[in-house]
Amino acid sequence: MWKEQIQYCLEQDEKYLKNITFETQTIEDNHLMKFDFQNIVFDSCTFINCDFSECCFTNCDIINCHFYDCCFTKAYFNQTNITDSIYSKGSVFVEAHMKKSCLKKSSFAYANFSNTLWEKSHIENCNMKYAFFHSVTFKKITFECVNFQKADFFRTMLKDIDFSSCDIQAITVSDTFEELRGMKISAEQAISIAQILEMEIL
Q1: pTM
Q2: φ and ψ at residue 34, rounded to 5 degrees
Q3: How many other C-beta atoms can be found within 10 angstroms of the C-beta atom of residue 177?
Q4: Range 154-157, long-range pairs (CB < 8 A, 24+ positions)
């Protein structure tokens, strides 16, 4: 079904799909730059080495999917929900834009989110260990029980963001520690931050 739909779009020179559900599809080596997906449901699909650069996902649901070495550079996610999915090492979201979107119970370990923009979005119960958040802009972002162990927030300002329910052990910031100014943490997490600041707790 996926192959036929994509082939039809390419033949018509229309990179546009709307109101379709794809279930248990395995897609490999597809290059779908600048496709526009609206009201699409991806359910239990597997994507291998696919390029979604500059694609738009609007009102989409991505459920129980697995992405291996896929690229989402400059992709736009608007009111899109990602649930119970895995983005394996090699997933790239550089310069992507997440707006009014929700990520739940999904894994983004080692994913590269550098230079992304997040607006009015929510991340809950996700694994983001070792993920890269270089020079990211967060606007009205909320985190709940997210694993940020050893994530890299270099040049990303965390002021007023609540990390109190998250694991922020050994996160990386710049030598000036400016990124940590004004972030909201629990008393227990203060120990982890003190270690980053090379403070000695007596």
Answers
A1: 0.92
A2: 65, 25
A3: 12
A4: 154/179, 155/179, 157/181
